[in-house]
Amino acid sequence: MQDFATELRQEAEAAIATARDAALRARTAHARAELMRHMLTTAAKVKERPARDAIAFVLGEWLAAWGQDPATCPQKPQMEDLAAACQAMVRAPGAHADTAVRHAFAALEAAYAAAGTTLADQMAWRSSCAHGWWADISPSPQNGGYSALSRRAETLWERGCAPHCR
User: Fold this and answer.
1) Model confidence pLDDT, tens digit, residues 33-57
2) Angle 20-23-25 (CA atoms, 0-180°, nearest 5)?
3) pTM for the model
4) What is the CB neighbour count within 10 angstroms for residue 111?
């Protein structure tokens, strides 16, 4: 028979693992949703401009918010395609425009996956609009020029007790 302290520790560890998995899923979903919200909001602000100018504006805002150099960002073509699809969506919403946004978003996710990362991670680690709790769930790597908002030494569940409690 296990002692009470061991039972409590095991119960806590199982609950933390469940919470960690749910938090990781939530962070990914929320980062993706926030990216789309930003894209559509920014596209709507400039929808009266000529399409080419509006797409360039959205792309420029995005690259700046992510601290990316337009000349060296490998995913820039896919980012531009998503900016164009979002611009089309705010100009003429509907099933066709939604399908184009979905396809452009999927292509951008595939481009980041091919580079060994995820679009959600890049949103969480690069964006100047990142939500602080995203880094508590999955901090950015220490190198890579990521936003200060994305840096943490440890995840929420790795922090544990304060040193004076040990």
Assistant:
1) 999 999 999 999 999 999 999 999 9
2) 110
3) 0.91
4) 18
